[in-house]
Structures are given as C-alpha cells and as structure tokens.
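Changelog-adjacent note: as of this version, every example in the card shows the full chain rather than a window. The one below runs 656 residues end to end.
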Amino acid sequence: MRPQLELLTDATISALMLSPSPHQDPELWLIQAKWSDRGQAGFNTAAAHKLIHGLKKLDNRDFDQFNVRLQSLADRVRGVLGLPTCKVFLVVAIVGEGRLSEETEAILREAAIDFGGWGRTVEHRVLSQADFHRAVREDLAPEPITIIATMSEGWHSRETPYQAFDGLVCTEELANWYADHGERLYDRNVRRSLGLTGVNQTLVESLTDDPQGFWYRHNGITVQCNTIEQEFFAQRGPSKPVRLTLHNASVVNGAQTVTSAYRAYERSPDVLAEAFVTVRIISVNGAPEGFAKEITKATNTQNHMERRDFIAIDETQSLIREDFRLTLDKEYVFKRGEIDPAPASGCSVREAATALACAYSDPVLAVRVNGSTGALWEEGPGGAYTRLFGKQPNACQVWRSVLLMRAVRDALHDVRSTLSGRSASIAESGALLVAHIVFQLVGTDGIEEIDSEWESGLNEVPTLVEAVLAQLITLMDHFFGEGSYVTSTFANEQRCQQLVTGVLQALAEGTNVRDLTTFQSNIPKPRRRPSTVSLIIDHNLIPAGTRLQYQPSPTEEQAIGLWLRNGQGRPFATWVDDRRKPLLWEADGQRYSPSGLVTQIWRKADWREAWSAVQGPKQWHVPGEGSLVEIAEQLWQRIITEEWSREKETTEDTNP
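Full-length structure tokens:
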C-alpha cells in the first residue's frame, strides 16, 4: 500500500494508509517519519504522544482537525475503525539506528492495550535506516528463496507431467522457513501473513497444547518451486526418508500455518518437533505459462468451513425453525448460503443470536459479538452459542428479541444524524451495548408468552435509546476520560460492564441525567458533491466550444488505439452547455454524455472484451488543464474549504 495522505496535522502523522480493497482485512497504518541528513534521527516520548494523539483524533471522529484530503476519506477511516477486526499499525520510520527508549516503547505498548479489544489489534513497528537499505536492495535484486523439506516414510511423488511430492513435514522445519525468509516466503501467494488473528491464535494454541494431534486437524500447505533436489538418508527408494531442497520456492497456500508455526516456536520451541503437517510440493519447471498462477488461485479459492456451519447439524436449530412456522407462521434460516427472509417474514440465526446476546443479562456477550460475529458460534461452558441456545429458546422469545434489537437500531439511526464527532462515534460503536441496556430496561417478563402484551413496550424504545445514549456519552468521559478510545472501549468487557452498571444506576436514581440535546450539533452536514458536469456548467469552468481529447488507458490503447487514430475526429469532442449531453463528437456530429461517448467509441471500435464500468469524466481531458473530474474536484475542494472556514468562524463567534 502507498500512503494516501501526507502531513495530516502538525506532523502528528506523516502518512496514513488504509486497506486497498474491501475484501482485505481492515487495516489502518499511521506512519510517523523522522529524517536526519546525518542518519541520526530519533523518536522520543513527545513524538510518540503526538502519534497516539493523531489516532485518538481519528477514533473520536475529529476529522475537522485534519486537512481537506483526509476529510474526503473520513467515511473510509471511520468504517475501518468501526469494524470488529480492525488492525492498527503504528509505524515509526527513522533515518537512524531505530532504537526507542523504554519510556517511548511503554507509550506505544500502552496505546496497544487501550485501543485493542475483542477482535482488535494494535501493533507498532520501527523501521530504521538499515531496513530502508535492505528494502532497496531486495527491490533491486531479490534473491530466490531456497528451503529444505524433510519427509519421513510414507510420502508420495510423481514425475509426470510435472514433478511433485506429498508427505509429512515437521512444523519445526516450517518455523525455520519463516525465521530465515520471513514474509518473502509468500511472494507468490494471494496474501501475506494476517498477523495474530483469532484463527491464527487457535493454530498456535493447537500446536503448543496438542502437537501430536495437530495433523488430524489441519488441511496441509502447498509449496511451489522451480526445481527439487532429492537426498536420501540411507536406503534410496520410494517412500524412504528424504531431504528435499526446493529452489526458488514460495508457499502459495498455508501462509497462516507457516507463520503460526513460527509464533508457536517462539513460545514453546520444544513441542514443534512432535507436530507434523502435510506438505504438497509442486515443481513448475517446464510447465506452460500461467500454470503456476492457476495452482495458487485454485488452492486459495476452495470452499472452507466456518464455525457457524456446524450449527446446521444441531437439532436445536431445526426445532426453533419448526416453532417459528407453527407458532408465528414465520421463517427462520440457520444454514449458511440460505437467503435471509424479508424482515417482516422472519429472521436468520445470525440476527437471532445477536439479539439474544444483547438480551443476555451479562453484557459480555454483546461485547464479544461487537468484536466479531464469529463469537456467536463458540461452544463450551463459556461459549456464546452454548449460553444462548443450550436451553432452547422458544420462537416468541427469539422473534421478540429480534424486534427489540431492530427498534433500537432504527432509533439509533435516526439520532446519529444529529450527532457529530466523539458523540456520533459513541452512538455508532456502542450500538450493541445500547441495545443491551435497553433490553434490561424493557425487561423480559412475558417475552416468551404469545398472549402477553410484551410487544407494547416497543413503543418506548426511541425514548429509552435517547436516554441511554446521553448517559453513555456522559459516563464514557467521566469514567475513562475524554481522551479514551471510543471503539476500543466497546471492545473491553470490564469497561463495558462498568458503563452498563453506571447507566442503569443513573437512570434508576434519576440523578445527574443529561438530555441528548446537550450533544446534538447545529452545524449543518457538508453538502453532497454535485455531479462533475453540473459543477462545471454551474460555474462556467469550461467555455462552450472548448475542444476535449479522449485519453485511453494502456489497456484501451492496445485494444482500440489503432481504430482511434485511423478515423477523422475520433479522439476529439467539443464542449457544449448541456447538462445531459455536453460533448459533441467530431466523428459523427452527435451529442453524448462523457461516459456515453466512451461507450459509443468502444462499441464502434468493436471492442468485445470492454469493461462493464465506464468512467467517462476521468477520460475526457481539456489539454493543459486536466480531466473533467480533476477540473471539477479542484473547484469543489475550494468550495468546501471556504464553507468549513465560515462554519468554524460562526461557531467560534457564538461560543466565545
């Protein structure tokens, strides 16, 4: 990932990076860089406090403290921080030795404790001048990786059409691979190590707690290489112990297993000698082009089992579904892959379990679900699934719990639009805890009896939500300080228990209860950006008659470039003041929208593999000024900056 923002505010954060894809686990990287011409830069406690201060500002939604470029990404930053599996990396980049004092290390470790929680992690990394030099060297001339795989008796091999081996390898050897080569082992994999996630933590514990049983619970890994050298220990022959040297090797499936083996080795080095895993080794020497990529793709796209899948064989779920049909005439789905029913027609087991977790007397389950919905399916004495479904709840209890949770969600949605900054962040991150508290206030008397009047209490939910939220915001700052991390607080079981007790006690006693209007903001929300063409026409940014040029991407150039150049006027259009069709194509004299004209060009050029997505305003350029999008965006940034400045001045005048 490349930095998306630089010099955000007061050098608190030199750069910020976000997960580049919605399919990747959510990550936020905050990078603080220190430069020295003499290579003697340092990072002291003041710099560490500044970096943590920047993280707190982001967590509190204080985006007006940052520049306009970050404000345009506010929704993405808020979305990443609000996700239960958010990972935050605090990176200290120093052109120097890279040694931090114990005091500085303590500040960063404390931030990790404060921000981390159920399913959330914070790590800090220090990059020194030596790291930069090594990275440059590796980028310029990366050395091929050679690893050793020792297989005991019972392995299998084949020579045609491509050489391959399949057998057991000691996990101690896997740990050595990672110790020697690190993340470079996964250069040809679809992803790198994901860190100490819940699944990877389970792998580490499985290795250390029951090394001999590890093989029975694991699917194995796949390694690609160019060539394989065989060295037999004694007798040479099929399935006899052999040491395989793999040249230009890469782990293309099983990165998490190899990394977890290394983590387990750090914790208990002796136990790995007893744990084995199945390793499949494939030599791609002589294989056709694309074969290696096909292996990587195939080994990483096979369907996998999730913990939720195993509840499908629990008879309790079948009985609840039958109860839903007979008692309520509604649907209840519990198998992954089934389509969720319409809200009025029923619910899924995920929604039901979340509602039951909020209704549970102890807030710990709501906290865990807020951290990860995977916690819903944990079994055993302390597991959420056992607590929620161990004694089968009837259809009335499940359905009414869902109705109350939906009512809380709708009420929070309405009130969130009136809040800003830290208050809005608390309303968003604390939604399940608010639901838990409302459940305690409404009570469950008669919830399982179909003839009871329990549902009449749902009318009070909006009022209760406002009262609970106002008190929650107040106690957050009172208990933990205005500088506490919002998202992390709601991932901390002890803190949430303290908040629940405090809110219920305050509401019961009726003392020092604040009204939600105290936290509601009168500052209007930023206007939605008008369309590119509307901005340009409304502000007369492009005079009528201006000639524009179509600039194809490299892929388009290869596909239709020859056709574009071999026809008069094909790459050019004239600007006209028409909101719907502002481009007059020189090739046929007809008017088009920017995207419509790009589509017409692709169609005329008979580009049959053309993309489904068309971004015409980015491809039509005014020579010397930029694309239509760039021209409109420059104006819009000036507009919102001026509006923000005026709003800030007005607020300061009314609140001296």
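Structural remarks: The first strand starts at residue 5 and ends at 6.
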